[in-house]
Amino acid sequence: MAEASKKENFFVRVGSRTKRFFRELRSELKKVVWPTKQQMINNTIIVLFCVLLVGVFIWAFDAVAGLVVNGIISLVKG
Fold first, then answer.
1. Residue 8, by phi and psi: left (phi above 0), alpha (psi -120 to 50) or beta?
2. Residue 4 pLDDT more than 80?
3. Does residue 3 fall inside a structural domain?
């Protein structure tokens, strides 16, 4: 009776939890619907286009803000 209530040591507990984690991970990964090659190519193109578009907007805003700041500085200098 005393042995049944005895707590397992730390390494046994961690080992069993780790095994259970990877077992559950494997079963969950079997449920994943992986994209096809064509879907992956399309998604990559969309992401690259969006990154390029955001980059252009940031560049344009930076250019306009730089002109405004330089204009203000030249007005203050006289």
1. beta
2. no
3. no
